[in-house]
Design goal:
By secondary structure, the chain is of the alpha/beta class. It has helices at residues 3-13, 24-28, 33-40, 61-79, 89-101, 117-128, 143-151, 168-178, 199-212, 268-281, 287-299, 302-327, 353-362, 392-408, and strands at residues 47-48, 111-114, 134-138, 155-159, 161-162, 165-166, 182-185, 215-219, 245-250, 262-265, 333-334, 342-346, 365-366, 368-369, 382-386.
Length: 415
């Protein structure tokens, strides 16, 4: 046998060694139960209160189609070419103008365009967090943020909250004791609770951050979806927060999530570091999507479109709130969010939201148990209900099914 063939035979018959193990952070962070529930609810006929999904029938499909046509007509070569990491200048300018109109003076150079605000959060974590660093979050909080900080190797600590959000005095105590790198917060129509942090608390948090040395990461995907009550200024607009706040925004809830367009407004040094992190991640956000969005913002009255979306979502929220007394067990509690996409509920003592979900799925209705959103010991009685995806009539039917699911599971409703 030739020598080369003998070597090949020996290699083929040798016992292969396994490849090295995954990084510890990859093994320690689990998948999203919310995404798994969404997969279960894709079968026809299911009424799902699970996903925080915009209503597809409310997308401005004609306006967006025209915007893409305009992007190609203006310069197909540019639309299909690589572009700068920071983002298309006209889209950065449009974002800056909208932020300024909401009371936060912003220029185009203050903005980085990202592939959804989720990427902005990932860039901030890559830029600010080393393994072992402390990150503070609300409890409960956005599940994908917990995944993001887990992958960064952070030690995540919950800040005490009440029905209005973070308690500033408790925050100050934790910052002084733990010396965290950053506080991550969704102060307006929070996910999963739907609550909004009052302006006075925002001012106190900004002062605590300035006094004790803390980065603030303000996530605002839902701020345009206000149905009642007064506008509350961004945390970033309060004295003390100017040089330490990363503000994350998104077009997913007001245009379409399939665009995967978000933005980051941050102090210059942090923004430059985020640009380098983005270069390592994806070089830049899709050029054609950015240019189409810029054309859309220039030609379409986005505020008028959002007003139509708000009117529809307000009716859907009200339908959910009207039907909950008949759908949930006697003694359940829930809030009335002034905007956003979610109602947060809590079942009575002795009940478990995951057990209720198991029964609900057999009745072709779904929601998200609250436990995965918690840092530390969860509250198994909590659940999140999204009201944006279905019409008021579908919501009413879904709540009837939920009430039947509770009855078949031995749960007594409020009827």
């Amino acid at each position: 046998m030739p020598a080369a063939a003998a070597v090949a035979t020996a290699v083929a018959t040798a016992v292969a060694s396994p490849p090295p193990a995954f990084a510890a952070r990859a093994a320690s962070v689990g998948g999203s139960p919310v995404r798994e529930i969404l997969a279960l609810t894709e079968r026809p006929g299911v009424i799902s209160f699970a996903g925080g999904l915009p209503a597809p029938e409310l997308f401005d499909t004609e306006g967006l189609r025209a915007a893409y046509d305009a992007a190609f007509a203006a310069s197909a070569r540019r639309a299909l070419q690589y572009s700068t990491t920071e983002g298309a200048p006209e889209l950065r300018a449009a974002v800056a103008d909208r932020a300024t109109a909401r009371g936060l003076a912003t220029g185009p150079d203050d903005v980085l365009i990202t592939s959804g605000s989720q990427q902005a959060l990932t860039l901030i974590a890559a830029t600010l967090v080393d393994p072992g660093d402390v990150v503070l979050v609300e409890n409960p909080t956005y599940l994908a943020a917990l995944q993001c900080f887990g992958l960064a190797g952070a030690r995540v600590i919950a800040v005490p909250c009440d029905e209005q959000g973070i308690l500033p005095d408790a925050l100050a105590d934790i910052v002084a004791r733990e010396r965290p790198r950053l506080l991550y917060t969704i102060p307006t129509f929070q996910n999963p609770t739907g609550r909004t942090l009052p302006a006075a608390r925002r001012a106190a948090i900004a002062q605590t951050a300035a006094r004790l040395g803390l980065w603030l990461v303000e996530d605002d995907p839902y701020g345009d979806l206000r149905y009642e009550g007064d506008h509350v200024p961004w945390l970033a607009a309060h004295p003390g927060a100017e040089d330490r706040t990363a503000l994350l925004g998104s077009f997913s809830k007001v245009m379409a999530p399939g665009l995967r367009l978000g933005w980051l407004r941050a102090p210059a040094a942090l923004r430059r570091a985020a640009v380098v992190a983005k270069q390592a991640a994806d070089l830049h956000t899709s050029t054609v999507d950015q240019l189409a969005a810029a054309h859309y913002l220039a030609e379409v009255d986005l505020d008028a479109h959002v007003a139509r979306v708000r009117a529809a979502y307000r009716a859907r929220r009200d339908a959910l709130l009207t039907g909950l007394p008949e759908a949930l067990p006697a003694g359940s509690e829930w809030n009335r969010p002034e905007g956003g996409m979610f109602v947060w509920a809590r079942l009575p003592e002795g009940h478990d939201a995951t057990a209720l979900l198991t029964s609900a799925l057999t009745h072709d209705v779904a929601f998200v148990p609250g436990s995965p959103f918690f840092t530390g010991p969860p509250d198994p009685r909590t659940l999140r209900l999204s009201f944006t995806t279905h019409t008021p009539q579908e919501i009413t039917e879904g709540l009837k099914r939920l009430g039947a699911a509770g009855s078949s599971a031995g749960v007594t409703s409020n009827r």
